[in-house]
Write a structure and sequence with these properties.
single chain, BirA Bifunctional Protein, domain 2, Rossmann fold, globular, proline-tRNA ligase activity, Proline--tRNA ligase, ligase
């Protein structure tokens, strides 16, 4: 059953007292989404799509630099195609939606609604690639997918969500693996520098690896409540998917071989991560580079309306050279409502102008990450000043997010300490040698999983065996 949303327009319940309703209050008050008619689906509202389109723009630019081209593939395809890769189907089986009938007619070959597209891409590659000199092929699509979830939460875990999924084909194992790591680094840079998220990077354990992958490289962020969120992954697939559809091509010696593939993706889960990392008890807080409006200008109206707002506005525009995404909110709502509304929506800079400001040739400027207001002389206003204010905002929210993560990060040296710290909501670092059975046991007892593995320069005794290792595991609960 859906929880009642807070109907009082400007009230955001406190994160400290009610984190679940704090999150949903922000989503609804910032007008990001409404619940869809089917469980786990959403009506994504214009403000969200503006954020998502900026994310698409940034990532597409980076992908294109590395030779990736855009495609669109079918939403529905035969289950028999998915069944060809056994490890892959086992990983998705509980979440797959089957189409068994058309009208009253039962299908002989059931169809699936796309849970991911590895098999579709493999089928496409088989039909279009015949020889080694066509490679590498690098493709990406921005689409919706469907995976049925029992426990849903807007943006963080949905049955239907939007994402990008990239797929490549290479002549050698080395090339495919190298490209999957390249994408891994592109995600890391984007998440760190554009979304300003505290990121931990590494490789998934065998238990947590993407179904059918040989290696899964992951980017995870640590949210305000200490839980981890997987926000982007890149997979080296080897040539098992090619084998499953008998996708062979000719090499230089005219002999046939199975080429090597990678896949990689991120999704609208990023928006949930932004909310749960940067927001405060006043509402949404957005990094400036993906904020639909970087500046909102709000006129302070008076009864006489005795100043030329348009001329004043044109002066402001000329000063900042229209280099920024600007919204002028001249609507009939009260001044107090407009200020609160844009604060809730997380706009980085709000500018107030009225008759007093007009007569004094200044304006009032408020940066979202600060509590104080600034009075700016109009003659001092310029694009560089605004750019610096946006940088200040981004630096502040990034520092807050990083400090939150560091306050929850802890190194431990025993399994007993591991379990104790997980239970109180910490993110646990420990030297670790892979042990799938113990990993399952810890998950059952604490709800935590290994978010990723990486190697330290120095070695130490692992917490689960007598051996010395450089490998570190990060355990945390997650969405």
């Amino acid at each position: 059953m859906e929880k009642k949303k807070n109907t009082k327009n400007n009230i955001i319940r406190s994160f400290e007292e009610d984190p679940i309703n704090w999150y949903t209050d922000i989503i609804f008050k910032a007008e990001l989404m409404l619940y869809g008619p089917t469980k786990g689906t959403m009506y994504l509202r214009p403000y969200t799509i503006s954020i998502w389109n900026l994310i698409i723009k940034w990532l597409t630019k980076e992908f294109s630099k590395n030779g990736v081209e855009e495609v669109k593939f079918p939403l529905i395809f035969p289950k028999s195609l998915l069944d060809k890769e056994k490890k892959h189907i086992e990983g998705f089986a509980p979440e797959i939606l089957l189409i068994t009938h058309i009208g009253n007619k039962k299908l002989t070959d059931f169809n699936v609604i796309r849970p991911t597209s590895e098999m579709l891409f493999s089928d496409y590659f088989k039909k279009t690639i015949k020889t080694y000199n066509q490679l590498p092929v690098k493709l990406n699509q921005w689409v919706n997918i469907m995976r049925w979830e029992n426990n849903t939460r807007p943006f963080l875990r949905n049955s239907e969500f939007y994402w990008q999924e990239g797929h490549t084909v290479h002549n050698t194992e080395e090339e495919a693996k190298k490209f999957s790591i390249l994408i891994h680094e592109i995600y890391k840079n984007f998440l760190n520098k554009i979304l300003l998220l505290p990121i931990i990077s590494g490789e998934k354990s065998t238990n947590e690896r993407f179904a059918g992958a040989i290696n899964t490289y992951t980017q995870e962020t640590i949210l305000k409540d200490g839980q981890a969120l997987q926000v982007a992954t890149s997979h080296y697939l080897g040539n098992e998917f090619a084998k499953s559809v008998n996708f062979k091509i000719q090499n230089k010696e005219n002999k046939y071989f199975y080429p090597f593939q990678s896949s990689w993706g991120t999704s609208t889960r990023l928006i949930g991560g932004i909310i749960m990392t940067h927001s405060d008890n006043k509402g949404l807080v957005l990094p400036s580079k993906i904020s639909p409006f970087q500046i909102v200008i709000i006129p302070i109206k008076n009864k006489n309306n005795d100043f030329n707002f348009d001329n004043f506005l044109n002066t402001i525009y000329s000063k900042i050279n229209r280099n920024f995404r600007i919204k002028i909110d001249n609507s009939d709502n009260s001044f107090g409502y407009l200020i609160k509304n844009w604060e809730i929506k997380g706009v980085p800079i709000i500018i107030e102008i009225g008759a007093k400001e007009f007569s004094n040739s200044n304006l009032i400027l408020k940066i979202r990450s600060e509590s104080k207001k600034r009075i700016i002389d109009l003659k001092d206003l310029n694009a560089k000043m605004i750019s610096n204010f946006l940088k200040e905002h981004d630096k502040k929210i990034k520092e807050i997010a990083l400090n939150n993560f560091l306050n929850k990060k802890i190194w431990i040296s025993s399994l007993e300490d591991l379990k104790k710290n997980i239970i109180i909501g910490n993110v646990v670092y420990c030297y670790w040698i892979e042990d799938s059975k113990l990993e399952d046991k810890i998950k059952k007892e604490t709800g935590a999983t290994i978010r990723l593995l990486y190697n330290e320069k120095k070695s130490a005794k692992s917490v689960n065996k007598e051996d010395i290792t450089t490998q570190v595991a990060i355990f945390a609960r997650s969405y």
